[in-house]
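Progress narrative, Year 2. Work on Extracellular ligand-binding receptor from Schinkia azotoformans LMG 9581 advanced from sequence curation to structure prediction during this period.
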Amino acid sequence: MKRKGRAFGWLGMLMIVMMLFVTACGSNSTGGKNSGTNSDQSEPSSSNDKNGRSDEKGTIKIGVLASLTGALEAYGKQTLKGFELGLDYATNGTMEVAGKKIEFVVEDTETKPDVAVQKATKLLDEGADFIVGSSSSGDTLAVLPLAEEYEKIMIVEPAVADSITGANWNKYIFRTARNSSQDAVAGAAAIAKEGVTIATLAPDSAFGRDGVAAFKTAAADLGAKVAVEEYAAPDSVDFTSNIQRIIDTKPDYLYVIWAGANPPWKQLSDMKVQEKGIKLSTGAPDIAALKTMQDAVGMEGFTVYHYTLPKNEVNDWLVEEHQKRFNGETPDLFTPGGMTAAIAIVEALKATNGDANADTLINTMEGMSFETPKGTMTFRPDDHQALQTLYAIKLEKKDGFDYPVPVFIRELSPEETAPPIQN
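Result:
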């Protein structure tokens, strides 16, 4: 839905009518130029009626927002690789659903909320049927109102702030990513129990503060107490003062929530936190960050994904195809999320027979279950959060890996990690 403009007078209306008449008489063209990564001008371009329904031979257009530069660049690129593979998997390589071609356009948010809004507006003005993204919770929160304004479905991946499906949610928002509360339940299950004291270290951002708030609640439910909360700037490279305050508090555990290219693990090791009797715990990060955690071998926590953990056909396909297409490289932490977002879109369109009308899609997607690299996910009708499996793990050294590997302890089921409804 385009933005509404100001009403204007009868003279303006008369001029537009005359212009339309002249244009109609002067041209017999019915086609238009397609946009997107897979455009083909020989095919008819997509056209939508006022309710957002694409024409029978049209094109489904998807706009993807990702951090391709900035602090979360690695996450954006992982998500994008997964999304491309997901479209291929879900369409059996045809890039079509219900007889319609699928096109997608990628825009770099630069990990800046104002840029994310600008890029999302551009994609929606150019006729995107879906928006997918973004890597940053701040970027995503800024874009959410546009989904409602344009009446288009937004698939949130991989941003995790609770408020996305909480206070800032609207009915057009569906999230395949897990949220902070799901992480918190998993993280608390690994270390929290009666009488345990815990410190937290997190970025001073929506992601960090939502994560800590959710973790405190989950830990308290298990009888533990968060004794100190430390927040550092997301682009910080010096955590000395934060770590020293944690050491001075003398907690049993330090639970770290972090995302980005500058994790605190080396400095935690340099300041000998574990040697002072403080055990470390976290959600195991991506492979680049795991390589900085050599001194954390033996640490117990949880993870969203490591390619060795899920045992299902979708993950087998993802690992094999990713290695085949990307020079032997294995899928990373956020790759399956991108794949899941693509699968969710295609499965929804299969169910609607290609109808991209938002109300039709909402009715279809609420309660929809679908297969992913992490097993079966289900969009909870109440807040459109995907309920999903996470993994309790222990970091261990393994032959063939140059980083501590998250080794399986047990699955944390979708029912076990279901977050509270907050919208």
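Residues 169 and 423 are 6 Å apart (CA to CA). The chain has two domains: 59-178+310-388, 181-303+391-412.
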